[in-house]
Automatic annotation (TrEMBL):
Recorded GO CC terms: mitochondrion
A single MF term (Gene Ontology): oxidoreductase activity, acting on NAD(P)H
Record carries keyword Metal-binding: yes
One GO-annotated biological process of the protein: execution phase of apoptosis
UniProt KW keywords: 2Fe-2S, Apoptosis, Electron transport, FAD, Flavoprotein, Iron, Iron-sulfur, Metal-binding, Mitochondrion, Oxidoreductase, Transport
Primary role: Induces apoptosis through a caspase dependent pathway. Reduces mitochondrial membrane potential.
Domain Rieske: 70-165
One protein family per Pfam: Rieske
Family to which this protein belongs: Belongs to the FAD-dependent oxidoreductase family.
InterPro entries: FAD-oxidoreductase/Apoptosis, FAD/NAD-bd_sf, FAD/NAD-binding_dom, FAD/NAD-linked_Rdtase_dimer_sf, Reductase_C, Rieske_2Fe-2S, Rieske_2Fe-2S_sf
Protein name per its UniProtKB record: Apoptosis-inducing factor 3
Intracellular or extracellular location(s): Mitochondrion
Length: 598
């Protein structure tokens, strides 16, 4: 695959903008895998597998008794470019008509269960309305993130002007399909000292890299190491649902890693990387040789440097243990959150029902100001104030005061004193790359690892991905950027794996992120750094709006609340390589988005 955008194709997006969403409340908390059984049976395309490597997968259409077949509609019921949810037995199927052909797929996004019928159909794929994951309508395969699993694809036939769908009962129930993967055929002989692929960091980038290697038929040893004591988990959920337990957050169960021979070393800290001898050394002295290395160490939260910073009950949130402890201590007590960015505001929102009081301290004059602009920030601030959150803006913490070692008061530079039993600090993060300083692997002045579009560092065979990298953003003129978001980490992990296998893939995904507060979601796509104007359509006070961020004549990002699937539509337009001009969004005429305009 060469450049991302050869020739911009005419973009057709024929779906009405669906406004409020009934499923909204359940959205952010229905975990990827919470309570849903997973089957590691795939019917995707497999490449260069040895016969004995295949998992014993049941045939996708086992026996007649396990299958359902029924007429779901008349051929004329759907126009080209339309999607419909249809009933099949006790389940539902997403029926899509594209270029005169019908396709039938799983109807829920495997990430958090969004109804895909409310998403966006464009260029042979459907994009989730909630978080932007994309699925190929011909295969059901996941093509853009977040999430790990693909959709089931069902058989369709047309007889006497009727559309029939045939599906296995199991696939209808599961709503997710894990792609076919190779197994490891060179297991470690009692933790031998060498591995083919070593992945440092087990967040989204590390896990997706390991899974992609196996999906592409790679059957050598893969070792994934993490500072955490847990297997890979859904970290963005920590600040949105602070009392979630590690097992509810797990992205894959233990058996998955065993089945596919992905070895995970927990509580394993790499202290040095020797690129000349292709070897890493761990804190406990264990040495491991590698032939390919992925660095995905993520970042570490910044801490306060003021007087009294060592008092008890002051937290940053990095692990489930941190989050659980904050909830336990905050119940019925006074809580102060320092920093009104995504993490701080999500924590503040979550604690309003648990704590006696919640106060937020922030240097800027409105929350999210740099990211979402003054007006959107103010509207969100009002929502928080209506939920009893008190703001102390344009100030910072000068001292933390304790009583018997435990936090009692937070003193602000404005000389205000705020009562506090618990303090959560969310003032940003720095890349966790200290261990690379003497390695010869290039770091920039801020400690980020610069990579090219193939996620390669300056050292051959060493790749990097996730929150700790800067990379060229294709649709912003290859500007080197750091985008520390969940979806981007997934995409980078996949590209790194493809290039370890010499597939010459390039990163060209459109950034997509979301936040959830008080049961409401804000979605965002693009890269808005340096925006010079914000054009708002809809009603900010009602929190039912879309905001377009522009720089000069071009739309560079979009945010919305209660306006689905507009953010996914804009992401599709940007992904197709078409620029969106400021004048197109100023008029309030959205026809250009529904394929009717120029």
């Amino acid at each position: 695959m060469g450049g991302c955008f050869s020739k911009p194709k005419p973009v057709e997006l024929k779906i009405e903008v669906v406004l409020p969403e009934k499923e909204r409340g359940k959205e952010e908390l229905s975990a990827g895998g919470k309570g849903s059984p997973r089957a590691y049976q795939g019917n995707g395309t497999a490449r260069h597998f040895h016969a004995e490597e295949r998992l014993p997968a049941p045939h996708p259409y086992p026996g007649a008794q396990d299958c359902l077949e029924a007429a779901v509609c008349h051929v004329k019921d759907l126009e080209n470019g339309q999607m419909r949810e249809v009933e099949l037995g006790w389940g539902k199927v997403l029926l899509v008509k594209d270029n005169g052909e019908f396709h039938a797929l799983g109807h829920k996004c495997p990430h958090y269960g969004a109804p895909l019928v409310k998403g966006v159909l464009s260029r042979g794929r459907v994009r989730c309305p909630w978080h932007g994951a994309c699925f190929n309508i011909s295969t059901g395969d996941l093509e853009d993130f977040p999430g790990l699993d693909s959709l089931h694809k069902f058989q369709v036939k047309i007889e006497k002007e009727k559309v029939y769908v045939r599906a296995s009962k199991q696939a209808l129930q599961l709503q997710r399909r894990t792609k076919m993967m190779a197994k490891c055929i060179s297991p470690s002989a009692g933790h031998s000292g060498s591995t083919n692929v070593l992945i440092v960091g087990a967040g989204a980038a590390g896990l997706v890299c390991a899974e992609t290697l196996r999906q592409e038929g790679f059957s050598d040893r893969i070792v994934l190491c993490t500072l955490d004591r847990h297997l890979p988990y859904d970290r963005p959920k920590l600040s949105k649902s602070l009392d979630a337990q590690p097992e509810q957050l797990a992205l894959r169960p233990k058996e998955f890693f065993r089945a596919y021979g992905i070895e995970v070393l927990t509580e394993a800290q790499v202290v040095t990387v020797d690129v000349r001898n292709k070897k890493v050394v761990f804190k406990d002295g264990f040495k491991l040789e590698y032939s390919k290395l992925l660095l995905a160490p993520g970042s570490s939260p910044k801490t306060l440097s003021c007087k009294g910073k060592e008092v008890e009950n002051v937290f940053t949130i990095r692990t489930p243990e941190d989050a659980n402890r904050v909830v336990r201590l905050a119940r019925g007590r006074n809580t102060v959150v320092v920093g009104a960015g995504f993490l701080g505001m999500e924590v503040a929102a979550y604690l309003t029902e648990k704590a006696h009081s919640v106060s937020v301290v922030e240097l800027e004059e409105t929350p999210f100001r740099r990211f979402l602009g003054e007006r959107v920030g103010r509207a969100l601030m009002k929502m928080f104030e209506n939920n009893r959150v008190k703001f102390y803006m344009q100030t910072e913490v000068s001292e933390l005061r304790a009583q018997e070692g435990k936090l009692k008061e937070v003193v602000l530079k404005s000389s205000k004193v705020v009562r506090a039993d618990v303090c959560v600090v969310g003032i940003g993060a720095v890349p966790s790359t200290g261990f690379l300083r003497q390695s010869g692997i290039g770091l920039d002045s801020r400690g980020f690892i610069p990579v090219n579009k193939m996620m390669q560092t300056n050292v051959p065979g060493v790749f990097a991905a996730g929150d700790a990298v800067t990379f060229p953003l294709a649709w912003r003129n290859n500007r080197k950027v750091n985008i520390p978001h969940w979806q981007m980490a997934h995409a980078q992990g996949r590209v790194a794996a493809q290039n370890m296998l010499a597939q010459e893939a390039e990163i060209c995904t459109v950034p997509y992120l979301w936040t959830a507060m008080f049961g409401k979601s804000l979605r965002y796509a693009g890269y808005g750094e340096g925006f010079d104007d914000v054009i708002i359509q809809g009603d900010l006070e009602e929190l039912k709006f879309v905001a377009f961020y522009t720089k000069g004549d071009e739309v560079i990002a979009v945010a919305s609340m209660n306006y689905d699937p507009i953010v996914s539509k804009v992401a599709e337009v940007l992904a197709s390589g078409r620029a969106i001009r400021k004048r197109e969004v100023e008029t309030g005429d959205m026809s250009w988005l529904t394929g009717k305009g120029s």
